Amino acid sequence: LERIDGWRKDCPMEFEADGKLRPQQIIQALRQKTGGNAVVVTDVGQNQMWAAQFFSYNRTRSHITSGGLGTMGFSLPAAMGAAFGVRGTDVPVISINGDGGFLMNSQELGVCAAHGLPLKIVVLNNSFLGMVRQWQELFHDERYSHTDLTTTNPDFVALAKAYGCEGLLCDKPEDVQATIDRAWEINDRPVLMEFQVVTEEMVFPMVPAGAATDDMITQRFDPELSA
């Protein structure tokens, strides 16, 4: 484990800092806000991977995920259970979601509000089914079939408020910290934070279908680099 920790220090996870709002920045900001003392419940897809890569923990049994089962819609109801489990303590419960997975169980916002659960709900809204979109770009010649949610997504902030929760919107990297700080000031009801992140962001490393682990892809293909 010490050797692995050394590798992590020598080769930390990175992302492009180009003035655009990227999901990795949000996960890092949540880690900084909590100091790693939180229960983080992920959904399925890119958000699940970014949370695993960019949120480090100080205690065991703090990362709740459906793993490889691929249970979209898992995060919110599982976070609800976690919130009941730690009720009466100062441990925050953070539900991390993509926009597609969140909509599969978004009606549970009403239950969260009815019980006054102080959940911090993060929606990384890239207006796509991000992981499927990534595969379509890399392996299917950018034929984006049934993954674009641009015209079908609701107003997530309005949806949260309709259920009796608080809703916050962030679409600029410089506003991430203020949005998170505001969410932490509210503890009598759930808070949904919608972060409108870039659509084209990918998560690496990944292993293509049918390939071995030594065929791992570590970055987006760049024709200029291969010329």
Give the structure's gist in a few sentences:
The protein has helices spanning 2-10, 23-34, 46-54, 75-85, 99-102, 109-114, 130-139, 156-162, 176-184, 223-226; strands spanning 39-42, 63-64, 93-98, 120-125, 166-170, 191-196. By secondary structure, it is an alpha/beta fold. The radius of gyration is 18 Å and the shape is globular.
Describe the structure.
The chain is of the alpha/beta class and 227 residues long. The chain has a single domain, classed as Rossmann fold, CATH 3.40.50. Helices cover 36% and strands 13% of the residues. It contains ten helices and six strands, in the order ααβαβαβααβααβαβα. It has helices at 2-10, 23-34, 46-54, 75-85, 99-102, 109-114, 130-139, 156-162, 176-184, 223-226; strands at 39-42, 63-64, 93-98, 120-125, 166-170, 191-196. The protein has a six-stranded parallel beta sheet with strand order 2-1-3-4-6-5, sandwiched between helices. α9 (176-184) links the parallel β5 (166-170) and β6 (191-196). It is globular. The chain starts with a helix and ends with a helix. The model is unreliable at 223-227 (pLDDT under 50).
